[in-house]
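Translate sequence into structure tokens.
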Amino acid sequence: MITINTTLSIFAMLGISSLAVFWAKRLKIPHTVLLVIIGMFLGILSNISFFSFFNEFKLTPELIFYLFLPALIFESAYNINIRKLIANGKIILLLAVVSFLLSTAIISLGLYSVLLLLGLKVNIGLTMLFGALISATDPVAVLSLFKEYGVPNRLSLIFEGESLFNDATAVATFLIILEAIRQNDLSLFTAIPGFFTFLSMLLLGVVFGIFIGGVFAYIVGKTKTSETASITLTIVLAHITFILSDVISGVKLGDLTIHISPIISTTIASLVIGNYGRTKLKSETENVISKIWEQFAFMSNSLIFILIGLLIVGTPIFNNTVFIITLLTIFVVIIARASSIYPIVYLYNKSKKDNSKIPKSWQHLLAWGSLRGALAVTMVLLIPDNLTFADWPLDVSPKELLLSLTIGCIAFTLFIKAVSIKHLIQRFNLNGLTAIEEVEYQEAMAIIHHKVTERVKRYKKRGYIDEQIADSLLKKHDSDFSKACAQVNKLSTKKKEDLTLRVLRIFSIGIEKRFLKKLYNDGEVTEDVFRQIQGKLRLQLEAIEEGNLQPNLTIHEDSYDIVDKLLDSIPKCIRKIFKQPENNRDFNNKYMYYRAQAILSRKVLKELQTLDKVCNSIFTNEAVKHVTDLYTSFKQNSERKLFDLSKTNQKYSKELSELLATYGVRTIENNTLEDIFKKELVTKKLYLNIKEEID
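Result follows.
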């Protein structure tokens, strides 16, 4: 029940967590660690009657499961590149399933043995419950550090992918064990149906997630003109997928019981909307959605970690016996994590080539950087208060013991592991720049100094800046520009390869991608054409990043584009339900394809000309000539093919050309109207009326 004290508690915590962002930077500790410390302080402070309202807002399984968890899952999965996830799918699934189950088994037996050594004989079901709930990783704190220190993207992806999918594995395993304990039927015979339940939860979770994600992606495409509707749909998607999965799970169809993992279904639906649905959105809407979900994730994490701090104060963790068990348990969990990482990764590496193997330094981070958090607490809170075992040897209940052990492990991972991650990253030099990144850094600095110089010269000429101050600024930025250019030449010479050519190619593809999205948003290419060109650019970019400067420019099919493969697998009769058949569709797409390619080539050539001084100073003459000649040939070839295609059906090509010209004019009208409105030349009422007339 929401009361005034609960509301005050929520907003006070959010306010404190916002200030804690700056305190954490000053103290040089992870934000989540500081939030737990603040939560512990608020827990002590709440004993004073004036501050007792902080105890009004408590962590409950329902709060985390139906409010916080869907938001955190969506924000994380929405921003994951599904192609790279699939490319690393083998190691992620090995860690999320095999490594998790191995860790659960080691912790179960290890903790059972530790308690026996202490003279405490407990039911093996208790240690199995703990093994399942504590083996799931929560990378919130460590991933924020990864972003801050710039570790390799692949390592971050493996961490995040493991966390997303082992959350589902953990909940499924935990619920199966808990149900077996409640029915007093924990045996080998219950393990077999439990295994099939586990598979059902994962597989049906994937199917349901794809279905819901596909439906919402289709709806988002139809509502892309409304930013408000698109944002609302993503919020609905995250929570309705989770809730519907939970509602459907447990429904009986005759003798068959449906089991769906809400975490898996929400993850998959979020991946679909993030990798497919977002391409339908306008760039501005896409940016707003990313910012809003980043804010939701921040608020959810802030409340969770502060509440974990409050929870620490209220647990019997400092009971002498419980405290000793907790310390030994932490040791067992560390061993279990290491034992479930190194052998699994070793076997994975044996089946891979050198360039895709997991380095030792990464393995150390995977073993040590496994933090625990909200999900572990959620599962503990799901345990009934009246859960008991025959001949229970402690004066605290089984749930209180498991809660204390969980809180103790979370505190250790946050206060010790999270704080030490920075030193591990630096020790293994995982935050160092690659050769390409070093050139890109100097290129960016050169462009910045060049732009500043141009602007200061203009301001000096117009009298906006005092001449003496302007001359001083020009001297500094000219010098910094020259240093950046010299550094690029030095790097290329040192690496004995033309890194500037690779960077210039990457830069050019970035220009193509940006203008391609604009053409799609303006209706000048269909979704089919957009995805075809986007796939080609993606493959070219990856090839160039790996050092192949002559990728096959004719390849469009992306072996990792799961969405295209799913769409191709749908029978044509079903596809027609969602997509109306079009006249001359093949001609349409070819015409738009060649036209778009010609436009993109011209845009690249034009942008390279605007950065003429930078290009000639920072890139080698050979690199500039190579890219200029390449895009000139792209433009000429596309224009020739467009001309040849138009001759095959002059009447229809003219109609299509007129239609696309109309779309272009409409875009100009909308952009002009936006500019007029921002300058307050028309009222809001007039703006809406004119916009409706244009649309």
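Note: Strands lie at 252-253, 256-257.
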